[in-house]
Design a protein that fits this description.
It is globular and about 55 Å long. It is built from four helices and four strands; from the N terminus they run ββαααββα. The protein has helices at residues 18-30, 33-39, 44-57, 79-108; strands at residues 8-9, 15-16, 63-66, 74-77. It has a domain at 11-106: Orthogonal Bundle (Arc Repressor Mutant, subunit A), CATH 1.10.10. The chain has a two-stranded antiparallel sheet with strand order 1-2. Helix 2 packs across helix 3 (44-57). The chain is mainly alpha-helical and 141 residues long.
Length: 141
């Protein structure tokens, strides 16, 4: 199956892509930067740096600290963070629909023997390292 990954580079700087969006989705699920990072195979520091970057890219924070309570603090996705996820996923869906015929045409030209004998061929997907997926840079684009 042909896949397409989208990274959005903003002006004057910063980017979002599948890695940062997945991190936000895991924070939504777990309520914790640490747990979200673990779920994606990255250190707390890496996850925190990505969240910090996201909170600086946009005018509004995408996550905020949850105070105290009976189970202690944590991290919550803000309403704006939800919007960022929704917009990014919509861009993915719309791009998939708009490019489906071209992706199919490209896929039809792929050599079926490529990579069959050597399973270590780098497909550019960063599948083995979630912390390095496109869009995860903290350099601001």
């Amino acid at each position: 199956m042909t896949r397409m990954r989208i990274r959005i580079d903003f002006q004057p700087g910063g980017s979002i892509g599948p890695g940062k969006i997945m991190l936000l989705e895991r924070i939504r699920e777990t309520g914790s930067i640490s747990a979200a990072g673990r779920a994606l195979g990255m250190s707390y520091r890496r996850a925190w740096l990505l969240v910090d970057d996201l909170n600086h890219i946009f005018r509004e924070p995408v996550v905020s600290a949850a105070v105290g309570g009976k189970h202690g603090g944590g991290t919550v996705l803000t309403a704006f963070g939800e919007q960022v996820i929704d917009h990014y996923r919509a861009v993915e869906r719309e791009a998939r629909v708009a490019t489906a015929h071209r992706l199919a045409a490209l896929q039809a030209t792929v050599n079926p023997d490529y990579g069959a004998a050597d399973k270590t061929v780098d497909d550019g997907s960063f599948a083995g390292d979630p912390g390095l997926q496109p869009g995860c840079e903290t350099t601001g684009g």
